Amino acid sequence: MVGTDSLVIVxxxxxxxxxFYSNLGLGGGQLYVPIMDLLFVSLVMKEIVPLSxxxxxxxxxxxxxxxxxxxxxxxxxxxxxxxGGLVGVVIGVLFTTTVDERMVKFGFAALLLVVATKMLHxxxxxxxxxxxSAKPDSxxxxxxxxxxxxxxxxxxxxxxxGGVVSVPLIIYVFRFETRKAIGTSxxxxxxxxxxxxxxxxxxEGVTIHYDxxxxxxxxxxxxxxxxxxxxxxxxxxxxxxTIFTGGMYLAAAEMVxxxxxx
Length: 262
Fold this sequence. Notes:
By secondary structure, the protein is mostly helical. Helix content is 79%, strand content 0%. The protein has one domain (4-261).
């Protein structure tokens, strides 16, 4: 179903995404999905999303490992947020496997545009935030549960790692500094992505392309592990965000084109 040329190009592109996205606390699904939608023309969204979940899992797991070695993962908070996200995962899987394909693509394109614009706003605004961690009181826990359910929905419906929601949540609500928020978000994604994949595998009418998953996932795992370790030492978070914000706008354009062409 997938040509060798397309497979090689996808392998190169998703490996590059994994290398850089492991530094942002993002699973990379924002770009994995559009890349496969463009080049794996025989696959539909409910076949692409489980593949993206495999890729997002190894990206997030690699980032969790690299950040934890530096003491930049809060395992207690990450586990708490992931528990709430499991509810959203189930809702997200039901959404993608039951609604029209065009609706899923429209929702994904809208998500990309909103997230890319939010990232630009956060990068270039002048005001500074406090980096002092806040004690998770009851109001913060309630906010955390609500947003973690949304995170789970995005993971289950669009095959992303959920960092687009969980990183800002951890920074703004729990007042973590950016790198620790990224590491903790990676833990959340590493828990939710395999749960979402299992939900797709158990869902009737969904085809899981294990051959593609087994071919591409190890490439992304190696690239993400190397990228996250290198990035913690050498790479400025703002630079990576700038590059991939542009990438998300391009990915949104690809999704819109796919909608118009279908």
